[in-house]
Design goal:
The chain contains four helices and five strands. It is of the alpha+beta class. The termini are far apart.
């Protein structure tokens, strides 16, 4: 299978043996990788976040040859992948109702004079 990886990675089989490596020298280049790397959960993770391209059409391959880093952030991820992941999480602050802040009320009662 032809792949293009924007990040360095080690793919392992079920027993933990390394079956394929993407090194700094092979990053951002088209490489023929064994089909067995699909068994590693890392493969699916990198595909989802956009750091790894596999099973490309000839048109996609040509676009990636011309500019492999187009449309990705500094970490090698596609922004759409990271923003959808971030929007899927809710912050606790958003879930809690906002406390209403009222200005201090003026004191209407006066202290008795002695």
């Amino acid at each position: 299978m032809l792949i293009l990886s924007r990040v360095c990675a080690e793919f392992r089989d079920r027993s933990g043996t390394v079956i394929y490596r993407v090194t700094p020298e092979t990053r951002l280049t088209f490489r023929e990788a064994p089909e067995a790397i699909r068994q590693d959960p890392l493969f699916e993770l990198l595909i989802r976040e956009g750091s790894l391209e596999a099973s490309m059409t000839p048109v996609q391959q040509k676009q990636l040859e011309n500019s492999p880093l187009e449309g990705v952030d500094a970490a090698g991820r596609k922004p759409a992948a990271s923003s959808s992941r971030a929007s899927g999480r809710k912050s606790r602050a958003k879930d809690e109702p906002a406390a209403e802040i009222k200005p201090d009320e003026e004191k209407t009662e006066q202290e008795p004079e002695s």
